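Quick one, probably user error.
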């Protein structure tokens, strides 16, 4: 574990690729769902991704980091629940979670996290966010029956 700053190391291409592959597998599984099942699936996965950081905050043990991580988790879970039928909004939420990863990577949020995690999570988040936005575009174009 390290403080969420790795300016000296930075996100590696391996971390991003590993995360992107995981996000791609996640998207492929969701793509097998009926279109109306994709948004709830995206919402559940977003809640899990946010919950991982809450776990890091609890393991970190410092009160301020627990509060930061639990607040972030509640915000993402709240958005996921509120927009659990809106694929496009969930895509934007996934991209926002990538920003959350970046804040950890830059050391602006200083919770102890495994050094590889923010980069891998960023790759995952970007893939799911972009895929969800593509799905939402198809929905708006009338190619599926789900809500954007």
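Nope, works fine. Designed sequence:
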């Amino acid at each position: 574990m390290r403080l969420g700053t790795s300016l000296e190391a930075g996100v590696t291409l391996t971390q991003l690729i590993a995360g992107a592959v995981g996000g791609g597998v996640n998207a492929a599984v969701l793509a097998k769902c009926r279109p109306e099942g994709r948004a709830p699936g995206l919402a559940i996965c977003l809640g899990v991704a946010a919950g991982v950081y809450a776990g890091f905050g609890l393991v970190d043990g410092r009160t301020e980091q627990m509060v930061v991580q639990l607040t972030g988790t509640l915000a993402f879970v709240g958005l996921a629940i509120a927009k659990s039928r809106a694929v496009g909004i969930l895509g934007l939420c996934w991209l926002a979670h990538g920003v959350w990863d970046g804040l950890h990577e830059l050391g602006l949020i200083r919770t102890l996290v495994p050094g590889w995690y923010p980069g891998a999570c960023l790759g995952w988040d970007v893939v799911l966010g972009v895929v969800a936005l593509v799905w939402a575009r198809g929905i708006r174009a009338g190619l599926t029956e789900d809500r954007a």
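The beta strands are 2-3, 112-113.
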